[in-house]
Design brief:
By secondary structure, the protein is an alpha/beta fold. The protein has 2 domains: about 5-180, Rossmann fold; about 190-275, Orthogonal Bundle (N-(1-d-carboxylethyl)-l-norvaline Dehydrogenase, domain 2), CATH 1.10.1040.10. It is built from 11 helices and 8 strands. Strands 3-2-1-4-5-6-7-8 form an 8-stranded mixed β-sheet, sandwiched between helices. The radius of gyration is 19 Å and the shape is globular.
């Protein structure tokens, strides 16, 4: 029975994951080496819960209770008592593997390790531990409190028991889990990233303007936002990282990152989080979920 959850990484995804677990009755510890990141996570969770109160989806008294369930710690040792750990750090295989290897030496034998990776091999991450049967992918969508989908990725050694625990947890969080196999990009990003990449190529080649490309998909395909707007929300650096994983892992030139995308990342134009990406957010308020 999972009662205590550790979330490793206090960024946008980690704080969102922690909020959702706490809101559904779990005791949660967020671990990050950065005190500043932990403080931003604390403020982000408090703000997210306050929005739920304003919308009438949570009582003020419940907000205080949920906040009290979340602890903020800088040492990974604070995750040792967790029954389930979710890694949500930078999208780098080496960094993630190091977290899992260290956590493996601290955590209880029954604990399951999940990665929120959007593209990296679960099998590879599991090999950094002595419990590959208890390592799985649990890919939440951004913003976590709003989006219903969770991709559940089984590595080569992931056990039926760890898979069942993860599916049950997703449902307890009122999410819809979809199980996929461990191939680069899984389902969501294997399809989404080439879509975004092709939009970047269309812009680079002058086929249409930035705004017109987005308008085609908002009005013609009923997408809530266009591909370039979506790339800005995700982060152009993240899009580039995932495309590089797809390109290396599958060896197909159709996943080659657009040179314009790479140039923008090199320039530091990463999307909403930096105020400029394909669109300029210094000229208009950024939307929630950044």
């Amino acid at each position: 029975m999972v009662e205590r959850v550790a979330v490793i990484g206090a960024g946008t995804m980690g704080s969102g994951i922690a909020q959702v677990f706490a809101a559904h009755g779990f005791d949660v510890v967020i671990v990050d080496s950065s005190a500043e990141a932990l403080e931003r996570a604390r403020e982000g969770i408090a703000g997210g819960l306050a929005r739920l109160v304003r919308k009438g989806r949570m009582e003020e008294g419940e907000r205080s209770v949920v906040l009290a369930r979340v602890a903020f710690e800088r040492s990974l040792a604070s995750a040792a008592s967790a029954d389930f750990a979710v890694e949500a750090i930078v999208e780098d295989a080496g960094a993630k593997a190091r977290v899992f290897a260290e956590l493996d030496g601290l955590a209880r034998p029954h604990a399951v390790f999940a990665s929120n990776t959007s593209s990296i091999s679960i099998t590879k991450l599991a090999s950094a531990t002595r419990r590959p049967d208890r390592v799985i992918g649990m890919h939440f969508m951004n913003p976590v409190p709003v989006m219903e989908l969770v991709e559940v990725i089984r590595g080569e050694a992931t056990s039926d028991a760890a898979h069942a625990v993860t599916l049950e947890l997703a449902r307890r969080l009122e999410k819809t889990p979809v199980t996929v196999s461990d191939y680069p990009g899984f389902i969501s990003n294997r399809i989404l990233m080439p879509f975004i990449n092709e939009a970047a190529f269309a812009l680079m080649e002058g086929i249409a303007s930035r705004d017109d490309i987005d308008t085609v998909f908002r009005l013609g395909m009923r997408h809530p936002m266009g591909p370039l707007e979506l790339a800005d929300l995700i982060g152009l650096d993240i899009c580039l990282q995932v495309l590089e994983v797809l390109h290396r892992g599958l060896g197909d030139p159709k996943y080659r990152p657009c040179p314009l995308l790479r140039r923008m990342v090199d320039a530091g134009y990463l999307g909403r989080k930096t105020g400029r990406g394909f669109h300029d957010y210094t000229e208009r308020p950024a939307k929630a979920g950044t």
